Amino acid sequence: MHHEQHCGVPPENSPRRLCMPSMITKDASIPVATTIFRLSTRGYKRSLLTPFLPPVDARLSIPQLPSLTMVRIALSAAFVAAVIGLASSLSIDARAPVHASVKKISTVTDSKNIVAHDAARLNGYFKKNSKPLEARQTGSSSAINEIFSYIAEVVVGSQTFDLIVDTGSSNTWVGATTKFSAGSTGKSTGKSVEVEYGSGSFSGTEYTDTVSINGLTVTGQSIGVASRSEGFEGTDGIVGFGPEDLTEDTVSGVSEVPTFTQNLVSQGVIGENILGVSFAPLTGTEDEATNGVLTFGGVDDSLFSGELTYTTRVGDYWGVTVSDFAFGSTSLSTTGVQGIVDTGTTLIYIPSTAYTKFLSASGGKLDNESGLVKFTTEPTANLSFVVGGVTYTLTPAQYLIAQSQYENWGISGTSGFYATIQDGGSEAPNTILGQSFLEFFYAVFDTTNNRVGLAPSAA
C-alpha cells in the first residue's frame, strides 16, 4: 500500500477538479477527501463533523461499492470520536480560574471589641473550648460583632446577600440581616442546622438552592437559613471556604455537606478545588473598600510576587506549621507550632512564649485601653515567620496600624503606635495568620492537593 495524490472525476457540470490524498490498493483506487478545519474554542460548525466524499467514479464496479461505504462509515466515526474528544478537552481547558471582588467593611467602634471577637473565635472555636459562650466573651454580644470583614456578594436563588468570606469555617448560611425567601429553586430539606463560632452562632433550617458568586453557579447547594443568629449584625451570614470536615454534625441526619467550591468542581464549573485569596489594607481614612479578590479554580500570578511556596495542610483547619518567629535578629521561638491561615480573624496571634519575647525585644506593652500592644517609640525591626522553610517578613509599617486608620479602629488620640500582634496562649492552636497578615501575603487554599500556598503580595 502507498499514498499518492489522486484526482477524482468531477461531477457533471462542475467547474472544479477534486484532488485529494488516497489509498491505492491493487484492486482499485477510491478517492476520499476530508474537510481541513481549524479548531476554535468559540465552537464548531456542524459541517466540520462530516467528512467530504466526492461522487464515486462511474468506472467503479459494483463490488467496490461496499468498500466505499465502509470507508465512509469508518471515517465518519473517526471524525466524530476525534471531535468529541477535542470538545471534551477544550471544555476542561475552558474552565479557567474566575475572579470575584470582595469588599472590606468595618463595624468597629472600639479596638477592644476587635480583640474580644478574635479572642472568642480563637478560644471558643479553633481551640474548641467547652465553656459556654457567655463565659468566654469579654464584651457584650453586640460588641463581639465589631470586626473588620471581607464581604462577597452571593446570589442565593433570586436574592443577593453580603456574606463574610471565611476560610475558618465551611457552612454557607444566610438570614442574619436580610431574611431569606425561598423562590422556585429553593427547597427545604427539613433538617436543622447549627454552627457555633465562639464569637457568634446561628441556627435554623437547611435548604438547597442555586448559589452564585460572580457568575460561578452551582445548583442544589446546601445553605443554612437562620431563624436565630448572634454576632453577625451588619452582615447576612457566611460563605464558608474551609475544609469539608468542618461541616461534620452541623446538619441533622447528615455526616457532612459539600462546600460551595466542592460543588463548583463536581458540577464542572471549575477544574480544581483551589481558592486564591488577595487582600489589601484600607488606606487613608477609608472605612471600606473593594480591595480583595477571590480566584476560583486556580491562582492569579498578577496578585503576588516571587514564587508561591506550598506546605501540606495540618490539623482540622487550613493549618500550617510555623517553625520560627523572629523580631529583627532576635529569635522569639524555634519550636514548631500549628498555625491557622484564617480570613475570618482580624489580628495576628502568636504563642505566649513568642509574644512575651516580642514585647521584651520591641519595647511594647499591652495597652489596657485599646487591648493592643502599644509603643511609645516606633519600632524599626521586622517581624518574621517561617512557614514551609520560607521566611515571611512584616515590616513595621505592615504590623503597625496606620495612624490614619486609628479612628476606624476605635483608637482614641493619635499618640503612640499600635501593633496587630496578639497573645495566642500556650494551648494549640495558638498561631493565627489573620487578615493583618493576609493583607500582605497572597494565600492559596488548595483542597485538591491538601496544601496551603503563600507568597508576598504584588507591589
Automatic annotation (TrEMBL):
Domain of life: Eukaryota
Segments forming domain Peptidase A1: 150-455
Protease is among the record's keywords: yes
GO biological process: proteolysis
Keyword terms of this UniProt record: Aspartyl protease, Hydrolase, Protease
Matches recorded under Gene3D superfamilies: Acid Proteases (2.40.70.10)
Keyword Secreted among UniProt keywords: no
Entry annotation: catalytic residues: D166, D342
Alphabetized PROSITE patterns for the sequence: ASP_PROTEASE, PEPTIDASE_A1
Gene Ontology terms, MF aspect: aspartic-type endopeptidase activity
Any Pfam family the entry gives: Asp
InterPro entries the record matches: Aspartic_peptidase_A1, Aspartic_peptidase_AS, Pepsin-like_dom, PEPTIDASE_A1, Peptidase_aspartic_dom_sf
Family: Belongs to the peptidase A1 family.
Protein name: Aspartic protease
